[in-house]
């Protein structure tokens, strides 16, 4: 009886020659979510990255190695923003505006520095750093975005990048504006040197930031006309440094101090910190003014010597805040 039951069980589980045995096929699983914060939506680039990683097991060894190398590149890696950071839309708008005008500003500066403001298109394609467009893109595409300022004339059947007559008239107006504002801009540079350590700054740094302070491209030549204010020295490493020649006490007044002199109440509001109190404790005008004087730190001039301040103290923090405020007040955009 037991032998008969064993033979029937063996026949039941014996694989048939005609019935194929199912082979388990590995199902590609999706990689872990690269977005650690599920409340934030996944960008299309992250979805494309996940789809590319899912087909890796079905590729050959050579293609798998090539695709894996591309997926590990920082250019395609998903960028996850820290959810604790706040969105600063006004700063993002400034960055977007600067990116939109990068080609216009750099191309204008580079072509203006040439003896003849015209450049072959083939040579312009290799000067992506100088002209301010991404590498591998066509410079004609960016020039077509500004048809009133740039055009592509053909000289001997060779396309060139050049200024339009409107752009040339605007450049002439800009030069005249630089000449009329030269005295004010030199005063701003004097104040800038007065707040710097040792009252000196490399000329290359000023030339790089000349758009912030409204300086012309030939600023390094114009400072030589003011030997009573500036002096150009050469450091041991070969750098040309602009150094302040004379100190002017009349200029050693920050924008906050001038605002404090004209409107003391408004200037104190910039550095006031809140003192919590109950609503049942009303203050009259004189009491609020007295409390305002108590809860407002004394103003420390950025033109004073801050080397004697102890780090991480209230006075040192106030000095650094005033220094940044004065630096921004000397720029064109404030």
User: How many DSSP helices?
Assistant: 17
End-to-end CA span: 102 Å
Radius of gyration: 34 Å
What share of residues are in beta strands? 5-15%
pLDDT under 50 segments (min length 5)?
Answer: 5-43
Q: Say what oligomer this is.
A: single chain
- Structural class, please? alpha+beta
CATH-level-2 architecture of the domain at 96-171:
Orthogonal Bundle
- Shape verdict: extended
Q: What about the largest sheet? A: 4 strands, antiparallel
CATH fold name of the domain at 96-171: Arc Repressor Mutant, subunit A
Please tell me the overall pLDDT: 78
Total beta strands = 7
Percent range for helical residues? 40-55%
CATH class of the domain at 96-171: Mainly Alpha
The ordered string of helix (H) and strand (E) elements is HHHHHEHHHEEEHHEHHHEEHHHH
Region (Disordered): 13-43
Keywords: Hydrolase
Biased composition (Pro residues): 21-41
Domain PORR: 89-334
Describe what you observe in this structure.
This is Ubiquitin carboxyl-terminal hydrolase family protein. Pfam families: PORR. The chain has about 325 residues and is of the alpha+beta class. Among the domains are: about 95-170, Arc Repressor Mutant, subunit A (Orthogonal Bundle), CATH 1.10.10; about 180-245, Nucleotidyltransferase, domain 5 (2-Layer Sandwich), CATH 3.30.420; about 255-330, no CATH class. Helix content is about 45%, strand content about 10%. The strands form two sheets. Strands 1, 2, 3 and 4 form a four-stranded antiparallel beta sheet that branches. It has a three-stranded antiparallel beta sheet with strand order 5-7-6. β3 and β4 (about 160-165) form a beta hairpin. The chain is extended. Residues about 5-45 have low confidence and may be disordered.
């Amino acid at each position: 009886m037991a032998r008969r039951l064993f033979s029937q069980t063996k026949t039941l589980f014996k694989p048939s020659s005609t019935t194929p045995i199912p082979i388990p096929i590995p199902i590609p699983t999706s990689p872990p979510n690269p977005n650690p914060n599920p409340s934030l939506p996944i960008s299309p680039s992250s979805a494309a990255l996940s789809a590319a990683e899912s087909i890796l097991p079905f590729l050959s060894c050579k293609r798998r190695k090539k695709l894996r190398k591309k997926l590990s590149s920082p250019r395609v890696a998903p960028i996850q923003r820290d959810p604790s950071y706040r969105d600063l839309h006004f700063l993002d708008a400034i960055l977007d505006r600067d990116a939109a005008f990068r080609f216009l500003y750099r191309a204008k500066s580079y072509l203006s520095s040439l003896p003849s403001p015209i450049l072959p298109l083939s040579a312009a394609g290799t000067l992506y750093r100088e002209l301010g467009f991404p590498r591998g893109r066509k410079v004609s595409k960016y020039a077509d975005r500004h048809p009133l300022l740039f055009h592509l004339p053909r000289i001997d059947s060779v396309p060139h990048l050049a200024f339009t007559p409107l752009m040339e008239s605007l450049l002439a107006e800009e030069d005249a504006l630089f000449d009329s504002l030269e005295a004010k801009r030199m005063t701003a540079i004097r104040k800038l040197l007065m707040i710097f350590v040792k009252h000196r700054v490399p000329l290359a740094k000023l030339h790089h930031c000349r758009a912030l302070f409204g300086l012309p491209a030939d600023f390094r030549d114009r400072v030589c006309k003011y030997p009573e204010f500036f002096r150009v020295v050469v450091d041991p490493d070969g750098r040309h440094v602009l150094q302040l020649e004379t100190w002017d006490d009349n200029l050693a007044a920050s924008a906050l101090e001038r605002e404090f002199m004209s409107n003391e109440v408004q200037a104190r509001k910039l550095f006031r910190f809140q003192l919590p109190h109950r609503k049942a404790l009303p203050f009259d005008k004189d009491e609020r003014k007295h409390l305002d004087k108590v809860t407002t730190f004394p103003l420390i001039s950025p033109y004073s010597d801050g080397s004697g301040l102890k780090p991480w103290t209230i006075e040192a923090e106030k000095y650094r805040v005033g220094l940044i405020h004065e630096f921004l007040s000397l720029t064109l955009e404030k």
